[in-house]
Amino acid sequence: MDTAPQIVRYGALIPCRTAFIDAHTPGSDHKENFTVIGGGVSESPDQHVHIATPHGFNIGAAGQPPRCRNSLHDHRTAEAFFVLSGRWRFFWGRWGDAGEVTLEPGDIFNIPTGIFRGFENIGSDYGMVMAILGGDDAGGGVMWAPQVIEDAAAHGLILAETGKLYDSKRGEALPPGVSPMPLMTPRELAKRPEPSTAEVLPNHVARYWDMVALADRAPCKVIGAAGLLRDRPGFEVDFITSGSASDAPQSRDRPTVLMPVRGHWRVTWPGGSDTLAPGDTMSVPAGLAHAALPSMSGDAGLYRVTGTGDPAGPTWRG
């Protein structure tokens, strides 16, 4: 059993700029994708995995300059995002016009499965969102809206039925006997719900400052069977502030991931300690007693993610 946590520092994150099918599509061709924990859902062999140890969920991130867009897609398992930096517009539906919400730093969005979703940085600087994907295999890949696949092909990227990308700009072509990824049929597309913003927001979005108020004395359960966003997507998410942090060591029977969104946090465990800053990710092994406290005064918020073993989706209950 591991005896110490593993830490991935924000400044040490290794980006992949060819992770997905829209890597050449104008408007999406400057995004960076990161796989922090787990195998992730990248379609490119160039994607670097920082911590491959199974946790029951995956942690990833997307970094994008202003007005850069992540194209409409879906996963077979749950997907939740929280904003680390920047201002982001999330949108969903077959054409991305069924509904939308704007998220600020610290806000979290537990996106329903079965619905195409995309997002773009609408701030003035480079921004980053952190992603939690249910399951160790993250659902086996990404399902793209048909127009995304067609646009990508027009700019040289072909997605094979195997889920692997081939780049004609690099002289690559589909191997013999391998067909392109088929587009969803009209019948399949017609089965997908198109919920409005008013339908999605109450049960799928939690705001940072609301969670700060709720976590004043005890950690706020954000995603879980009894959470603000009631769901059992295969993981639970808690939010902790300086008011609800405790120096009493605790352990869990599954790996725990700590991700600060504001402030610096001092994490201690038998025989060691370290400090986390926003953008850092710490994986605490199962069974290791640990405590996390803000290391200075001021605003401090931290997300804690733990696997539950529940089926990882679906989450839309319209």
UniProtKB/TrEMBL annotation:
Tell me the SUPFAM superfamilies matching this sequence.
RmlC-like cupins (SSF51182)
Q: Which Pfam families match?
A: Cupin_2
> Which parts of the sequence belong to the Cupin type-2 domain?
69-130
Which Gene3D superfamilies does the UniProt record give? Jelly Rolls
User: Domain of life of the organism in this record?
Assistant: Bacteria
* Descriptive protein name: Cupin type-2 domain-containing protein
Q: Which organism is it from?
A: Candidatus Rhodobacter oscarellae
